[in-house]
Input
Amino acid sequence: MPRTNPVDIDLYERGALVRFAGVDAGYGAATVLVGIEFEARKGEVALVTGPAAAGKTTFQHLLRLALEPRSGRAVILGVDVGRASARTKADVKKRIGYVAENPVFIEHWSAFDNIAMPLRLIGQKPRDYDDDVRELVDFVGLGDAADITVEKLSNAERRRVAIARALAAKPDLILADDPTAGMSPADGRRVVRLLTEMRRVGAGVIITSQDESLADVGPINRWRMDRGHLSRVGYDGGEPTEAEE
Output
């Protein structure tokens, strides 16, 4: 059982995947995030925008348990990470899918094999995961590119591989750090649409980006990060235009 108190469990059962209360975080002597108040829920998408060096990547590090808060309370997937054991935090990480700004692949492997990697790491055999991975390939629109080595794929195709890989283990929480970086506006919006579709299966999605125009890609809770301070902007219930289909 996770080492949490009943309040944490209650939060999770009521749909709160992430709850930050008064969280400060940083590196060494530098404080990057100050007094963060934030909540993400099942079946919802949160978009955190802000300029470069505003603290968005540090925020992602907190969310994926790569950095611990200096103060305040951070509850992720029902676990108070400041009080949890290393084993419990490792279990939480397995329930989080992460799309890095610059995703790393085994370049000489096919897209299919890179997507399947998380499943191979937990001991599944090809016969166990083949159908699931093919379904992910179709979901992200890779088509025949699934059997091509990643080193030969376009930037947009590589990002689709990264998303499919992050979804392979069917995570409860999906994180994406600047997922449209280096992409055309059209490709970037298609990638974000793929991420927002995961709300339909009950996952929570948190995206950080400098691109504020992504807020109208779908139903999104909007947040703004500026100089380490996070504030709620509002909700955009817009749906993609026909040109983005």
Q: What stands out?
A: Residues 109-170 form one domain. Residues 193 and 217 are 6 Å apart (CA to CA). The first strand starts at residue 16 and ends at 27. The mean pLDDT is 89.
